[in-house]
Amino acid sequence: MKSLGCKRTQARRTSRVPTASWRCSTIQTGTSSRARRKSSRRYPKPTLCSQTTKSASATTRTAMSVLKKCSAAPRLTLTRYSATSALEAFATYLSSYSAAVAVAFCGDDLFGFGGFGGRRKGRDIVYDMELSLEDVLKGKKEEVEVLRLDRCRECGGSGAAPGTKARKCTVCDGQGQTRRVYSQNRFSTFVTMEPCRTCQGRGQIVERPCGNCKGTGRARQTKKIKLEIPPGAEDDMAFQLRGEGELSDKGIPGDFVVRIRIMPHPQFERLEDGHLLYNLDLKFTDLALGTELKVPTIEGSEKLKIQQGMPSNAVLRMKGKGLPRYGSSGRGDQLVRINVRVPTKLTDRQKSLLKELDREFEKD
CB count, 10 Å around CB of 213? Predict the structure, then answer.
């Protein structure tokens, strides 16, 4: 009976070893064997074998094989219940080199400070140009004066006074950007690039600034820009002239954008696909008897024949008398809509003639 009690007591002591929650402890290389033996007495070797211990051992072997391949990884001596220790060591290795990996893949300009997002360019200049239908037909050439931020003519854009030079920034080594590493925890490390606070992102420090631009390298100047609008331009269309905008602090110019506004015409209404609409008012007798008359077009006037018995609201087509189509060959047509002009004031003779004509129509 006493021997059974001893075995039960021994089994109870053995069952105290945790199987689900793994405790880990690491001993740096160089720890004495006496300390390791002392640590092993604190956590006795488990005698029970379970599925959890097998999977943990496999995880430990996998993590150790990865750490052996990484020569730069810190060497750890893993003690008992070391599945979590291996995973933590591997995560520590990855977090320590995440910054280098991010820079290797993304370059020095991470998170849009360059590389993916590109260097910041200057402000675009938007110019609204009004065109008539005659300008749309033939195109328009115009020269405009623009006041913009451009490279300083006295210092050549360096920002230093004439006869002096700007020195290289020692904080960012002339790059204009500094790197900052954020470590939230042992598993995540973020690297960002931000403008250098010493040189304001320019990479150079001006000790004697230019008197014209105050050390910025940019000054307000007037420049003439020649604009050439092709035929067939449409309303709300925009033409972009690259590099004709304002200069940024990085020396990259913006764009000059010409926005088109088509003015309404007193005679013609613009339709889609280069077509024009013209409303022609005729007398009742012209529609009933037929006639031939001159109709205004965008280029002058053309003869148009009205057939006898032409109904009201009829639409006649004059081919090729419209506007050119932008980006394609050919021109649109001019559509002529026939409207009947009804007199509002009649003389007694006109009234009698109309009544007589009405009686003639009733006989038919």
Answer: 21
What mean pLDDT, rounded, does the chain reach? 75
Q: What is the model's pTM?
A: 0.57
Domain ranges (residues) in the chain: 125-262, 269-363
Q: How far apart are CA 94 and CA 86, in angstroms?
A: 13
Cα distance between residue 230 and residue 21, in whole Å: 77
Which positions ≥6 away from 315 have C-beta within 8 Å?
335, 336, 337, 338
SS3 for 280? strand
Closest CA to 84 of 56, 48, 109: 56
Secondary structure (DSSP) of 321-356: -SPBPTTSSSB--EEEEEEE---S---HHHHHHHHH
Q: Which CATH architecture has domain 125-262?
A: Ribbon (2.10)
Give the burial string for 12-24 (b: 16+ CB within 10 Å, else e).
eeeeebeeeebeb
Q: Which CATH class is domain 269-363?
A: mainly beta
**Per-residue pLDDT for 266 more than 50?**
yes
Give pLDDT tens digits for 102-114: 333 344 444 434 4
